[in-house]
Design a protein that fits this description.
The protein is an alpha+beta fold. It has 2 domains: 15-148, no CATH class; 183-423, no CATH class. It has 13 helices and 16 strands. Strands 2-6-7-1-5-4-3 form a 7-stranded antiparallel sheet, sandwiched between helices. A 6-stranded mixed sheet has the order 12-11-8-9-10-16, with helices on both faces. The relative contact order is 0.11. The chain binds zinc ion. Zinc ion is lined by residues 334, 336-337, 339, 352, 354-355, 357.
């Protein structure tokens, strides 16, 4: 059993002027403490919160006797975290200045500084006593609460001065029970597709991450050039135009939809997800044709690393086990004969040099991931949905393996799980 945590952001209703002023004062004192502490910590090379607290508690208490004492604790935690990350950057020689700047401040709260007032409001301890703050809760929040998440005692509060609201970041936690896997689902990620092998069928979910990244890259570049010339490099108009592209949000939406399908498919069957273990370098040198480092990095993040990380996160949340296998040669060797595959120039279809059978590159990759997972983990010995690993060509000889089922983005984007493939008539795409 493990525990997963998430952050939900909730806004308060607009506060009365008087109450909001108290929070402005509170933020000022808190910021002041954090600034002092960070400076002290960085100078003294102290990254430990407990040491920082031991050294500075008395001094800060006497400086702000009117504040509830636990603000000193949380300011020490906050400052400790800031100092730690700054010292790390400095050690690598990447720090731009001698001391870190405390720019954005959220007030950290612990269990002594806030409490739930039923589920629609919270109370926060301040130098002027407890203040009740109404929350504007959204559907998302209720879904978590009804789904068995508990609200934990850590919280952070930010001030939205324009609308006189508090922005409250709540941490919610839940225990998840992992199941005993009954099978495996292999997932191979590349820049245009995610291939999924489940119950003997390979599905190619079209993502076009590469086109998306490239498209945004050129659009960004155009905006930067045009607005940069007209209004200046750091102009607000330019920033607004870039923000309007909504690049990150659109990429993330697509990614989460895809990941939901995969994780849900695994969970419904109680399978383990098999992924390649990605190294630090771009997967299998697949996008090395990109001359532009930045672009290569972005495609890599959008497709390989981003999708893998999202799968890991979602799987953890749902108690779906994940195993990793060595990605070496996954699409280069025939899953049946273990011999080399030959791909014609740029083709995704390859021929086995021993048996002469034709494989789609992503299908081979998926089967090899599955085989590697089976070999490396004989202990729990899950069944693997009709695939014979003894080398008999019968199940692999079917056309299903050789022709993966291609699923265009416009179709899967509306699905919840791969079981939709049974309900929809799919064209077999030859790719
Ligand atoms: Zn073969």
């Amino acid at each position: 059993m493990s525990e997963v945590a998430r952050t939900v952001v909730v806004k308060s209703a607009p506060l009365p002027r008087k109450a909001f002023r108290v929070f402005v004062e509170l933020e000022g004192m808190y910021r002041n403490m954090v600034e002092q502490l960070v400076l002290y910590a960085v100078r003294g090379n102290i990254a430990s919160f407990t040491r920082l607290r031991a050294l500075k508690y008395r001094e800060l208490r006497s400086l702000y006797p009117q504040l509830p004492s636990h603000y000193v604790y949380t300011a020490c935690q906050d400052a400790g975290a800031r100092a730690k990350s700054f010292l790390r950057i400095k050690r690598r020689g990447l720090a731009e200045r001698e001391h870190p700047e405390v720019k954005n401040v959220s007030i950290w709260l612990d269990d002594h500084l806030w409490k739930l007032d039923w589920l629609t409001a919270i109370q926060i301890a301040t130098h002027k006593g407890w203040i009740r703050v109404e929350l504007e809760l959204h559907k998302h929040f209720w879904r978590y609460v009804n789904g068995g998440w508990r609200i934990s005692s850590e919280a952070k509060v930010k001030l939205d001065k324009k609308s006189r609201r508090l922005v409250v970041c709540l941490t919610i936690k839940r225990h998840v029970e992992a199941y005993k896997p009954r099978g495996l689902i292999a997932v191979d990620v590349n820049e245009d597709h995610v291939a999924v092998l489940v119950d003997g069928g390979v599905y190619l979910l079209e993502t076009r991450f590469r086109d998306i990244v490239l498209g945004y890259y050129y659009r960004r570049k155009r905006i930067q050039e045009k607005y940069g010339k007209l209004y200046g490099v750091h102009s607000r108009i330019k920033k607004r135009a870039l923000r309007k592209l909504n690049e990150r949000k659109k990429k993330n939406d697509l990614r989460w939809k895809l990941v939901n399908i995969i994780v849900r498919t695994a969970k419904e069957r109680q399978y383990t997800i098999v992924l390649e273990r990605l190294g630090k370098n771009p997967a299998r040198g697949m996008i090395n044709y990109m001359k532009n480092d930045q672009l290569r990095h972005r495609i890599y993040q959008a497709s390989f690393k981003g999708v893998q990380r999202a799968i890991e996160e979602k799987a953890r949340e749902h108690g779906v086990p994940v195993v990793y296998v060595d990605p070496k040669n996954t699409s280069r060797l025939c899953s049946l004969h273990g011999t080399r595959m030959v791909y014609d120039n740029g083709s995704r279809l390859g021929r086995c040099t021993a048996g002469g059978e034709v494989w789609h590159r992503d299908a081979v990759a998926c089967y090899n991931l599955l085989l590697k997972a089976l070999r490396s983990d004989g202990s729990s010995a899950p069944s693997y949905g009709g695939l014979s690993v003894d080398g008999s060509p019968v199940p692999l000889g079917s056309t299903a393996t050789h022709d993966p089922t291609g699923i265009p983005k416009s179709l899967w984007i509306r699905w919840k799980s791969l079981d939709a493939t049974n309900k929809n008539k799919l064209m077999r795409m030859s790719i």
